[in-house]
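Office hours follow-up: a student asked to see two folded examples consecutively, so here they are.
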Amino acid sequence: MSPLYDLDKNPPLLPKRIDRLYELANNLWWSWHEDGRRVFRSLDYAQWRTSGHSPVKQLRDMGYEKLEAAAKDPAFLELYDSVILKFDTDMSGEKAWCNQTHLQEFTKQIAYFSAEYAIHGSLPIYAGGLGVLAGDICKEASDLALPLVAVGFMYPQGYFHQRISAEGWQEEIYRQLNFNESPISPCAWPEVCGPLVPVLLGERMVQLAVWQVRVGRVNLYLLDTNVAENEEQDRNISARLYGADEEERLRQLIVLGVGGVRTLRMLGINPSVWHANEDHTAFTMVERLREEMEKGVSFGQAVEGIRASTVFTTHTPIPAGHNIFPVHIIDRYARNFWEALRIDRETFLKLGQYDGLEPGKFSMTALALRLAGQANAVSRLHGQVTRKMWHVLWPDRHEGSEPISHVTNGVHLLTWQAPELRDLCHKYLGQDLLQEQSHPEWWKCIVDIPDEEFWEVRQLLKTRLIHAIQDRAQQRWTESGISAQQVVAMGALLDPYALTIAFTRRFTAYKRPGLILSDIERLKKILNDPLRPVQIIFAGKSHPADLESKQLLRQTYLLAMDRSFQGRIVFVEDYDLHFSRDLVRGVDVWLNTPRRLQEACGTSGMKASMNGVANLSVRDGWWDEGYNGANGWAIDGYQGGGPAEEDRADSEALYSLLENEIVPMYYDRDRAGVPHRWVKVAKEAIRSISPVFNTCRMMMEYTGQLYVAAASADDFGYPGF
């Protein structure tokens, strides 16, 4: 392996008594265990913060004297020993809290492929919700001791960091990841000196280095083309996440799919189940087809063979969101595929084409659906939309009977629920949170928590969020000399006592970030009420090539700088994984306003609900299942018509809910300042959402409904061609 980085992966010098700290730092298990984080915080809190909460960097930067002092501190040693014991127990492989028969008995290897993974901010190889889901799946697989291995891309430059100019325009900044300060290591190959993995791209052979990330019991393998053996034009294939260049994007997908399969084979890993997350991963199926053909079987037999063990998850209800490439670009690389499969060009192209697709195009989702034995959408409503969208692949079936199921997404409870709130649950509900997290009966006891204690924790989380935002604004002012107006726009005047609404997600037109801003004068009356003030926090990135969403972002930012709003509209730049945890825990209301049937699922609202944050959302994606009339609010104004009518009806419904229900309820307090009606909604959000929309339930469904069937090597009658 010859990556083009200045590598020094030798561990730092540590006192023998605490010499497993570096091992712990290099396994992201600590990132979702509060005691694991506390170990590193208590070493040196200032360095913990300046390291960006990266223990690997922290340990490399710390002086030996401080480490030696910690090794002699009885309180620290007690914490250290307890965490190491818990870590070793979790790594043992025992399914400590899994009492589901199909999980206990499932021992077949699962290979999970995704284009991005959001596990912790110290490894920034993610852009948004797709990566967060993939990261949560890895964590839950570790918790449940599911035999899962994950494959993705290294992305040395990751996704961009966001800065907003004084004129409101998003600026993209790319930073090279320092491999020596990140929880990654060169892949532990079976041989002493690991090989490079070869992938043929057109006429050139590209070599891949492989990095290994330990996510509890799960190994995540990341592919990297930046090696000396590659030509300069190929070294940057894996440099950035979701680049704008179409051909470069196709090359990435080929490298991920083909290179990922070959990596697992070279590691001696032969999965029984292959789970392809979104159409970015479709070339895994093509590479496995090639492997089957090498056994001397016919093309039809090879297709049936890989279908049997393949699960494909689609996340995109919008046709424009799928990867569709011009055939003339596909032709530059696909000859290697159709020749290896012993089929002609037309037969290969038909795998990615269908009636109604623009001529001369090739759909990666169609390719995946044709080669996967089982497919699923990510919410009940998304399943209905997806079956209708892809009915064209099964024209002989009745509409609605297409073989696409759904497994509604969930979120990882230990990652997203605030420790303070979890401690409160333990105090009144017992110590079996992990064992009981998917049992609704256990969560009913949430009503027994005294309102006063519950509200005190909620206010603590909110104050922490506001301080974090103000710290960010202060830091930007210190570093860049931005204007006072920009400092206010970034949240310097946020009030911890005001009703706080968050709209924080990827900025794009279908999510309608401007819906709550559609009537400026009416909004000013709501926000600037001196007795019942309201403030709105916006955050999110626009895709570098999406000019329309950049304009929406700019309009929002300029309103945040408008003095007439008195600092009550805020835009927090560079929304990232660490900040998102503070947001879903600390705000009062989580706002979501997508156009109907365009949100596949959406998981941020689940995280908010688990923390007692009330959702205010259009009934799309997961909220269509999660809303019960008492755990938040549904924006139900739309009765039909075009987009303009939808916007008008939804904005009216949104403003009416704020004016007549939400704001009055929040400020309806007893003499001790506790809003009991509001607390009832917050508790109901936790009670109703936590046991259903978690990754424990999700992975049990994936296993019971999809993995067991895929591992049994049955065919499910997917479309021919």
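And the second, which I mentioned at the end of office hours:
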Amino acid sequence: MMISGKFRAAGLSIILSWGWKRAAIALGAGALSTLSMSPFDAWPVLFLTFPVVVWLIDGAGAGRWRGVPAAAWTGWWFGLGYFVLGLYWIGKAFLVDADTFAWLMPFAVLGLPAYLALFTAIGFALARLLWTRDASRILALAIGLTAGEWLRSKALTGFPWNTFGYALTEPLELAQTASLIGLWGLTFLAVAIFASPAVLIDGPSKGRRRWIAPVAACCVLIAMGVFGAVRLSYYPTRLLPKVKIRIMQPDLQQDVKFNYSAKSAVMQKYLTLSDRSTGPQSTGVRDATILIWPESAFPFFLTREADAMAQIAALLPKDTVLITGSVRAPDLPPGVRVTRAYNSIYVIDHDGNVLSVYDKLHLVPFGEFLPFQDWLEMLGLQQLTKVQGGFIPGTVRRALEIPNAPSALPLICYEAIFPETVATGRDRPGWIVNLTNDGWFGISTGPYQHLQQARLRAIEQGLPVVRAANTGISAVIDPMGRDVARLGLGIEGVLDSALPSAAPPTIYARAGDIPAATIVAIALIFVIQRRARKRGS
């Protein structure tokens, strides 16, 4: 089988590149790789960009900073391109209160990607440490980048946004593999599959053996698709007949959402919109057993405003409960001024009683708290929410008990991006409720990426996800990741749906990251053995 001369020439040119040309190639490849994420989902582009990564690391053995330092430097440039284009929308949050925060926008748009690119650099460096001259270097790259991405999810509270494994979540058939090996297993497979064409430029002595890695990668991709198709057909969407969800999506602008003087207007909008008729047979909120409002819904402490609680009680029919986000004041002695608060979820019944409360555990750095809070506040800095001292983190994640419905696991905002085992055994909830406020980021790719990650949690756990977002995208997602109902970005309205029933616990829900770690460990042993054999020959 012949390889195109232009393909081989392009690969050799990249291997031999150096200096700023090399950095530019890595930067461009990283930026182009962003198209593999939502809303574009153009994952075949990685068949072009990941071979470039292999060739760049191939060439890291030459030049002044040869070897591991050169690979790390190249990886940083790749990561910078990937994260600048993938996370540009974060800058929009600094324009909500432009007078206070606009000057920080360049630091967010460039500074955060520069930091996250360090983990891509670590991945490249680890890969170079394991590098070989044969096709096993593809596995070395998969090991290195999976380790770097996992470390990114843990360091300094973690930020695993747009992890490479998300490229294999569209179409849904491919995403079903997450039920077995989770996000980290998908990440390993994504890197190995998409990097495999790089070996086609290896020397003529390899002969037809050059095709083994690409053909194996295609077989794995096909097997994933077949497994996913079978799983989707085996588990059709099943709905709980007695649980009716209504999600209220107010599309409220941020300057109103956090303005106490707009209290009456906000409440009136919520009440009116929640009871809106959606058709000839609709009776408004009386159709629902669970009404859901988004994260931090009020510009005030809800339970300290008796009139607001009375209005909610008047809105809710008997046997209907409200699940809503709200800032919650800590329990303090009378007369003590409240300076800090929790970002919370309340469950409220038709009598205005608070049935359950959850306080957000995983706070957003620079959004809900500052690293080294006291020191940075002394310098005059503050987080986007302007809560002096930062929000107070919760202490435990517990399922919300809901009358006449399965218990729900609460995830506030970006808590939904962390691919960890959320519940096992008899404590397993019946669904996941994700309240968020993506209004900070306007009409951008950010909310689509956030939804993509929340959907993968459903597939990993075999649990439906109900997502209520202030400006969208709100959705009801079944345990296989299918949209049961959806309300688009930047739309004011309500979304009515039955609640999908949970699937049996997945392998990932039972075993967590053990299967993925086993795959990486086997690949690591194989690569080390190949290196030892090459050195001994």
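Two things to take away from it. The first helix runs from residue 5 to 16. Residues 295 and 325 are 4 Å apart (CA to CA).
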